[in-house]
Amino acid sequence: MAKREKEGGILETVKTVVYALVIAGLFRTLFFQPFWIPSGSMKDTLLVGDFLFVNKMAYGYSQYSCPFSMCTFIDGRWFGSEPDRGDVVVFRHPVTGSDFIKRLIGLPGDRIQVRDGVLYINDEEAVQEEAGTFVETFDKQGPVGNLPQCENAGVALGQDCLKSRYMETLPGGTTHSILNVRDSRLDDTPVYTVPEGHFFFMGDNRDNSTDSRVSQNAMGVGFVPFENLVGRADRVIFSSAGRSMLFFWTWRLDRFFEEIV
């Protein structure tokens, strides 16, 4: 009798674990996917160590909505809803399969160009207004331990790392922060015409972002197909400036539940 009770207890434990995994998998597939910010390409909108949930209901579902892209039975996109210009989006890189997070700049049919560091969409300038200086400590950031890039190059460890900050307004009225580190080759680009069914993305930290300004053949992002969109990032849930979320003294309490704009 004791042996049967023990076996029954083990079976119930296994069933409970299986049910929990199924429920977690369905939640992650249909509703929200957790995402850690690993790099500085979206500063100062998103910082290294920000934790957020990606809204997977925003644009419908594709094969990339499932963990490990397992939903191969989905052809194209189910219950698809077009994203808006200015959305902060997590998408699957068309070549590497890695998850990226960037701001949606170009919709299908748009002509995108950067001239002298200023963005133009269909020949309309995205007006930039000076918004002071973004200041952070020049030190290792996040689990990877990357150092930030600074406009005041050559700063010592532990000192202030500075970047010029601007508020950029996209056609349609979305206003968001962007940073400048240096003059770079991506400050002047050719005209990109976004193909049908694709989108054009850029990072807010413009000089420290691998995005659609560089083709996939040149190790960039290029144009991203609609089916590769995973979801929209709406709000930072948790944020830690340290190497681990367990280092409570590095938590950024002011960023908890902050809306992403």
Structure, explained:
The chain contains one helix and 14 strands; from the N terminus they run H-E-E-E-E-E-E-E-E-E-E-E-E-E-E. By secondary structure, the protein is mainly beta. The protein has two domains: about 1-30; about 30-255, Ribbon (Umud Fragment, subunit A). Strand 3 and strand 4 form a beta hairpin.
The spatial strand order of the largest sheet comes to: 1-2-14-3-4-12-13
Provide the CATH topology of the largest domain. Answer: Umud Fragment, subunit A
Total number of strands: 14
Portion of residues in beta strands equals 25-35%
Return the CATH class of the largest domain: Mainly Beta
**Helical amount among residues, as a percent range?**
10-25%
- The termini sit apart by 62 Å
User: Count the helices. How many?
Assistant: 1
Whole-angstrom Rg: 21 Å
List the domain count as a whole number. 2
Please provide the ordered H/E string of secondary-structure elements: HEEEEEEEEEEEEEE
Q: How is the biggest beta sheet arranged?
A: 7 strands, antiparallel
How would you name the CATH homologous superfamily of the largest domain?
Umud Fragment, subunit A
Categorize the overall geometry: globular
Determine the mean pLDDT.
88
Task: Name the structural class.
Answer: mainly beta
Specify the oligomeric state. single chain
Secondary-structure arrangement, i.e. CATH architecture of the largest domain: Ribbon
Which stretches of 5+ consecutive residues score pLDDT under 50?
A: 15-28
Subcellular location: Membrane
Main location: membrane
Membrane topology: Single-pass type II membrane protein
EC number: 3.4.21.89
